[in-house]
Amino acid sequence: MKRLLESLLILLFVAIPMGALAAPFLPGQMMDVNASGPNAVGWLGDYDVTSNPLGGITDVFCVENANMLDSPNTKYDFYHITDTEVASKYAELAAATWYANWFVNSGGSDDEKVAAQVAVWNAMGMRTGIWGTTAAVETIFNDLIAAYAIDGSDAYVSDWALAVSPGDGTPIVWGEIGQNYLVQNPVPEPATMLLLGIGLLGLAGASRKKQK
User: Which helix (H) or strand (E) holds 182?
Assistant: First the structure.
Protein backbone atom coordinates (compact mmCIF):
# COMPACT_ATOMS: atom_id res chain seq x y z
CA MET A 1 0.00 0.00 0.00
CA LYS A 2 2.84 2.36 0.89
CA ARG A 3 4.51 1.78 -2.47
CA LEU A 4 1.24 2.47 -4.26
CA LEU A 5 0.81 5.78 -2.42
CA GLU A 6 4.39 6.75 -3.24
CA SER A 7 3.83 5.98 -6.91
CA LEU A 8 0.60 8.00 -7.01
CA LEU A 9 2.29 10.97 -5.33
CA ILE A 10 5.13 10.90 -7.84
CA LEU A 11 2.71 10.71 -10.75
CA LEU A 12 0.78 13.67 -9.34
CA PHE A 13 3.87 15.87 -9.10
CA VAL A 14 4.96 14.96 -12.62
CA ALA A 15 1.47 15.27 -14.13
CA ILE A 16 0.79 18.78 -12.78
CA PRO A 17 3.57 20.52 -14.76
CA MET A 18 2.78 18.46 -17.85
CA GLY A 19 -0.84 19.58 -17.60
CA ALA A 20 0.29 23.18 -17.17
CA LEU A 21 2.34 22.96 -20.36
CA ALA A 22 -0.59 21.58 -22.34
CA ALA A 23 -3.25 23.92 -20.92
CA PRO A 24 -2.75 26.93 -23.23
CA PHE A 25 -4.11 25.02 -26.24
CA LEU A 26 -7.71 25.30 -25.12
CA PRO A 27 -10.68 27.28 -26.41
CA GLY A 28 -11.71 30.60 -24.95
CA GLN A 29 -8.45 31.76 -23.33
CA MET A 30 -8.15 35.49 -22.63
CA MET A 31 -5.26 37.44 -24.15
CA ASP A 32 -4.81 41.23 -24.40
CA VAL A 33 -3.15 42.42 -27.61
CA ASN A 34 -2.34 46.04 -28.46
CA ALA A 35 -1.00 47.44 -31.72
CA SER A 36 1.37 50.39 -31.93
CA GLY A 37 3.63 52.16 -34.39
CA PRO A 38 5.71 52.52 -36.36
CA ASN A 39 3.39 52.03 -39.31
CA ALA A 40 4.15 49.69 -42.19
CA VAL A 41 2.23 49.03 -45.40
CA GLY A 42 -0.49 51.32 -44.07
CA TRP A 43 -1.03 49.38 -40.81
CA LEU A 44 0.40 49.52 -37.31
CA GLY A 45 3.45 47.29 -37.34
CA ASP A 46 4.08 46.28 -33.72
CA TYR A 47 1.74 43.89 -31.87
CA ASP A 48 2.36 43.00 -28.24
CA VAL A 49 0.60 41.09 -25.51
CA THR A 50 0.00 43.31 -22.49
CA SER A 51 -1.44 40.64 -20.20
CA ASN A 52 -2.42 37.01 -20.52
CA PRO A 53 -2.86 33.90 -18.37
CA LEU A 54 -0.65 31.70 -20.51
CA GLY A 55 2.76 32.60 -19.15
CA GLY A 56 5.72 33.65 -21.30
CA ILE A 57 3.95 35.05 -24.38
CA THR A 58 5.18 38.53 -25.29
CA ASP A 59 5.71 38.82 -29.04
CA VAL A 60 2.79 38.27 -31.38
CA PHE A 61 2.36 38.76 -35.13
CA CYS A 62 -0.86 39.57 -36.96
CA VAL A 63 -1.67 36.87 -39.53
CA GLU A 64 -5.04 38.08 -40.76
CA ASN A 65 -6.34 41.49 -41.77
CA ALA A 66 -9.83 41.16 -40.34
CA ASN A 67 -11.00 44.07 -38.18
CA MET A 68 -9.72 44.11 -34.61
CA LEU A 69 -12.46 43.87 -32.00
CA ASP A 70 -13.19 47.05 -30.05
CA SER A 71 -11.82 45.64 -26.80
CA PRO A 72 -8.28 44.23 -26.51
CA ASN A 73 -9.59 41.92 -23.76
CA THR A 74 -10.46 39.19 -26.20
CA LYS A 75 -10.92 35.43 -25.99
CA TYR A 76 -8.88 33.29 -28.38
CA ASP A 77 -8.84 29.66 -29.39
CA PHE A 78 -5.27 28.36 -29.57
CA TYR A 79 -4.06 25.84 -32.12
CA HIS A 80 -0.80 24.10 -32.87
CA ILE A 81 0.33 24.98 -36.40
CA THR A 82 0.16 21.26 -37.21
CA ASP A 83 -3.47 20.84 -36.04
CA THR A 84 -5.90 19.66 -38.69
CA GLU A 85 -8.03 22.79 -38.16
CA VAL A 86 -5.11 24.88 -39.47
CA ALA A 87 -4.27 22.63 -42.43
CA SER A 88 -5.60 25.02 -45.10
CA LYS A 89 -3.11 27.70 -43.99
CA TYR A 90 -0.19 25.47 -42.98
CA ALA A 91 2.22 26.51 -45.77
CA GLU A 92 1.63 30.22 -45.13
CA LEU A 93 1.88 29.89 -41.36
CA ALA A 94 5.02 27.75 -41.60
CA ALA A 95 6.73 30.54 -43.56
CA ALA A 96 5.39 33.11 -41.09
CA THR A 97 6.94 31.22 -38.17
CA TRP A 98 10.32 31.44 -39.89
CA TYR A 99 10.12 35.25 -39.96
CA ALA A 100 8.72 35.44 -36.43
CA ASN A 101 11.49 33.20 -35.13
CA TRP A 102 14.09 35.34 -36.87
CA PHE A 103 12.84 38.39 -34.97
CA VAL A 104 12.95 36.63 -31.59
CA ASN A 105 16.65 35.86 -32.22
CA SER A 106 17.54 39.14 -33.96
CA GLY A 107 18.01 41.52 -31.07
CA GLY A 108 14.53 42.93 -31.08
CA SER A 109 14.74 46.49 -32.45
CA ASP A 110 11.57 48.33 -33.50
CA ASP A 111 12.67 48.30 -37.14
CA GLU A 112 13.29 44.54 -37.00
CA LYS A 113 9.88 43.89 -35.42
CA VAL A 114 8.09 45.88 -38.11
CA ALA A 115 10.11 44.25 -40.91
CA ALA A 116 9.32 40.80 -39.50
CA GLN A 117 5.64 41.72 -39.21
CA VAL A 118 5.53 42.84 -42.84
CA ALA A 119 7.31 39.62 -43.84
CA VAL A 120 4.65 37.65 -41.96
CA TRP A 121 1.89 39.55 -43.79
CA ASN A 122 3.73 38.88 -47.03
CA ALA A 123 3.90 35.14 -46.24
CA MET A 124 0.18 35.11 -45.46
CA GLY A 125 -0.61 36.79 -48.79
CA MET A 126 -2.05 39.85 -47.04
CA ARG A 127 0.42 42.38 -48.45
CA THR A 128 3.10 41.85 -51.06
CA GLY A 129 6.23 43.93 -51.10
CA ILE A 130 6.61 46.89 -48.77
CA TRP A 131 5.68 50.55 -48.88
CA GLY A 132 4.98 53.48 -46.57
CA THR A 133 7.75 52.75 -44.09
CA THR A 134 11.37 53.71 -43.36
CA ALA A 135 14.38 52.80 -45.48
CA ALA A 136 15.83 50.78 -42.58
CA VAL A 137 12.70 48.61 -42.33
CA GLU A 138 12.65 48.11 -46.09
CA THR A 139 16.29 46.97 -46.09
CA ILE A 140 15.67 44.47 -43.27
CA PHE A 141 12.50 43.21 -44.97
CA ASN A 142 14.26 42.62 -48.30
CA ASP A 143 17.09 40.79 -46.56
CA LEU A 144 14.56 38.60 -44.72
CA ILE A 145 12.75 37.65 -47.91
CA ALA A 146 16.05 36.80 -49.59
CA ALA A 147 17.22 34.73 -46.60
CA TYR A 148 14.01 32.71 -46.51
CA ALA A 149 14.32 31.94 -50.23
CA ILE A 150 17.66 30.30 -49.44
CA ASP A 151 16.95 28.83 -46.01
CA GLY A 152 13.15 28.51 -45.90
CA SER A 153 11.78 25.61 -43.90
CA ASP A 154 9.05 24.61 -41.48
CA ALA A 155 11.55 24.07 -38.68
CA TYR A 156 9.88 26.55 -36.33
CA VAL A 157 6.22 25.53 -36.49
CA SER A 158 6.53 23.88 -33.07
CA ASP A 159 7.74 27.16 -31.51
CA TRP A 160 4.60 29.11 -32.41
CA ALA A 161 0.85 28.72 -32.13
CA LEU A 162 -2.16 30.28 -33.82
CA ALA A 163 -4.51 32.40 -31.68
CA VAL A 164 -7.92 32.69 -33.36
CA SER A 165 -10.47 35.31 -32.37
CA PRO A 166 -13.25 35.20 -31.39
CA GLY A 167 -12.45 32.27 -29.13
CA ASP A 168 -15.67 30.32 -28.95
CA GLY A 169 -14.55 26.76 -29.66
CA THR A 170 -16.14 26.75 -33.11
CA PRO A 171 -14.25 25.87 -36.34
CA ILE A 172 -11.88 28.51 -37.73
CA VAL A 173 -13.50 30.86 -40.21
CA TRP A 174 -10.81 32.90 -41.95
CA GLY A 175 -11.95 36.46 -42.62
CA GLU A 176 -14.58 36.75 -39.89
CA ILE A 177 -14.50 39.76 -37.56
CA GLY A 178 -11.69 39.43 -35.08
CA GLN A 179 -7.94 39.31 -35.63
CA ASN A 180 -5.76 36.21 -35.59
CA TYR A 181 -2.21 36.11 -34.30
CA LEU A 182 0.92 34.03 -34.38
CA VAL A 183 2.03 33.70 -30.75
CA GLN A 184 5.08 32.21 -29.11
CA ASN A 185 4.37 28.95 -27.38
CA PRO A 186 4.19 29.65 -23.64
CA VAL A 187 7.32 29.29 -21.54
CA PRO A 188 6.77 27.39 -18.27
CA GLU A 189 6.49 29.74 -15.29
CA PRO A 190 8.86 29.35 -12.29
CA ALA A 191 6.13 27.66 -10.24
CA THR A 192 5.66 25.09 -12.98
CA MET A 193 9.37 24.36 -13.09
CA LEU A 194 9.40 24.05 -9.29
CA LEU A 195 6.66 21.42 -9.45
CA LEU A 196 8.61 19.56 -12.11
CA GLY A 197 11.71 19.67 -9.90
CA ILE A 198 9.75 18.31 -6.92
CA GLY A 199 8.46 15.50 -9.13
CA LEU A 200 11.98 14.61 -10.21
CA LEU A 201 13.19 14.67 -6.59
CA GLY A 202 10.33 12.33 -5.71
CA LEU A 203 11.44 9.95 -8.44
CA ALA A 204 15.01 10.07 -7.19
CA GLY A 205 13.88 9.39 -3.59
CA ALA A 206 11.77 6.45 -4.62
CA SER A 207 14.66 5.00 -6.60
CA ARG A 208 16.99 5.22 -3.58
CA LYS A 209 14.48 3.46 -1.35
CA LYS A 210 14.17 0.59 -3.84
CA GLN A 211 17.97 0.17 -3.97
CA LYS A 212 18.09 -0.17 -0.18
Answer: strand 181-184
Q: Is residue 69 within 8 Å of 163, Cβ to Cβ?
A: no
Query: In the chain, where are the structural domains located?
Result: 1-24+189-212, 31-185
Residues 33, 48: Cα–Cα separation, whole Å: 6
Q: What is the pLDDT of residues 21-77, one digit of tens each?
A: 333 466 778 888 888 877 787 788 888 887 666 666 678 999 987 665 555 557 888
Indicate yes or no: pTM above 0.70.
Answer: yes
